[in-house]
Amino acid sequence: xxxxxxxxxxxxxPPPDFYAEWLDSFFARDxxxxxxxxxxxxxxxxxxxxxxxxxxxxxxxxxxxxxxxSRPTVMNYLDVLEVTLALTLVxxxxxxxxQELTRQPKAYTFDTGFIAWAHGWNxxxxxxxxxxxxxxxxxxxxxxxxxxxxxxxxxxRREIDFVVPAGRDSVDAFECKWNAxxxxxxxxxxxxxxxxxxxxxxxxxxxxxxxxRRFGACSVTVVHPAGLRGVMGR
Length: 234
Known about the structure:
Elements: H1 6-9, H2 18-35, H3 40-52, E1 56-57, H4 60-67, H5 71-83, E2 87-92, E3 106-109, H6 112-119, H7 126-143, E4 150-153, E5 159-167, E6 170-176, H8 186-194, E7 200-203, E8 211-215, E9 218-223, H9 228-232
Parallel strand pairs: 2-4, 6-7, 7-9
Antiparallel strand pairs: 1-3, 2-3, 4-5, 5-6, 8-9
């Protein structure tokens, strides 16, 4: 709920002005000064829109229309946000199958506290936890310095949260679930029908050591984010 920046993380309650003031400082120090971006209002409006949509497919034309900026300007600002690590674009993985998504990326902003602030969340409901937990898993994967982190989706909207190519014809799959017991293996089975080689991970806030579960033909390692480095190194 608070995010990972120390001042917010250590506060007993979400600081009311911290996030807006931080974004103002970010624009002045890291964006305007380094990239000569002049449209402060438009840039911050774009960033707040991305915060509210974080974890979703990025539709640049729709976003440019909603913030009142041209498509080239939005593309330029997206580059700035990526360079400053305020935004991570996760691109689709595909093997040439006609039913797989091939172009549209998913956009993840950099801190769960800012996402909660942009939504106006003062407390977390059960429906909020899943999307924020997915961000924490992505941040963990990014910290492992993997060569590529992607996602998979087909035209039936079956989706794997994150996939990591692991060698020739092999790709590891990562599904994120706040409650490991509610995991539905349908999308994983569809993914493995296209890409059978690789390891399967169900990342959840479990207590204790990683363990194995079987879902049909798929063996899945259930693991806490903090245990990912250990199980991936096996």
